Amino acid sequence: MMNPYDLPYCYPPHPSPRKPCFKLPHGTVDTHFHVFGPPEIFPWAPHKERIYTPPAAPISHYLQLMQHLGISRGVVVQPMAHGYDNSVTLNAIKCANGCLMGVAKVDTSFSDEDLLALHSGGIRGVRFNMIADSGGTNNLRLIETVVDRVKDLGWSLTIHTKPDGLIANANWLSRMPIPTIIDHYARVNFQKQVDQPAFQTLLNLLRDCEHIWAKLSCIERCSSAGPPYTDANDFAHAMVDVAPNRLLWGTDWPHSQRYSIGDQCDTGELVDAIPQLIPDADLQQLILVENPLRLFRFDG
Asked: Which of 50, 113, 224, 230 is deepest in the core (most CB within 10 A)?
């Protein structure tokens, strides 16, 4: 059993992200961020159910960040550190006066009443981490069961996977009966160029399957060049060429699982990367505003 003292502590988010030079379109949706704690109100999951201890990153801090960066709406994604207790995510949605929707962490123990309560609280999707070394699951039957339970609610499925996992599960993903979002470029390494098999698999899924979506997010993890992350450009352009109407953008704030000095990114720099990822203003409007509003069905 994991000793709680052995769990690594993450560095907190950048304390003073710069004001971006790029002005986000009005209505921009950050489709991927997390809220952590504060733990005295929303405790962490038991240590045996997580692989790290995050810093407190409360909803009040994110709401300030939205204003600072020019973000209009957001989708808060339930983090692994809080397990299946989605109260931290539901509270964030409640605090935001209609500006936020959410993606929950759900398993087969949730009743129909539980799922309806999540939906009433602003949940519009479910996410599965399929990366085994970060506490994820490869139980496809579990995911299928949950998908079958939530499809009538109109929810989406979000998948966090790495390159080998995307390749191994591509056919399975192609058969999902609900909108299915691939997080973070499937965590490909930008240094390996766009012809790498995993990225070509992602492009093929986007090209061939109308239910497959993907996020232009987490470029700082995939990049080997660092800011201004120019090695992300070819990957983003290839995705935009294939399926601009099924792409989303997100910050991944507060950028958890950073364990060393210098690892933490500046979220303002991520916003300033958007014009190089999506040079066309009409496509910026589509990806940053229209696509997420259509998928997550914001109220008002």
From this structure: 50
Q: Write out pLDDT tens, residues 272-300.
A: 999 999 999 999 999 999 999 999 998 64
Q: Which amino acid is at 58?
A: P
252 labelled catalytic = yes
Q: φ and ψ at 107, to 5 degrees?
A: -130, -170
Reported pTM:
0.96
Residues in the chain, how many? 300
pLDDT over threshold 50, residue 1: no
Token pair, residue 15, equals: 């304390």
Residue of 234, 252, 272, 282 marked catalytic: 252
Q: How would you write 132-177 as a 3-class SS string?
A: HHHCCCCCHHHHHHHHHHHHHHCCEEEEECCHHHHHHCHHHHHCCC
Distance CA 245, CA 25 (A): 17
pLDDT digits (tens, 9 = 90+) for 222-234: 999 999 999 999 9
Cα(298)–Cα(275) distance, rounded to whole angstroms?
A: 25
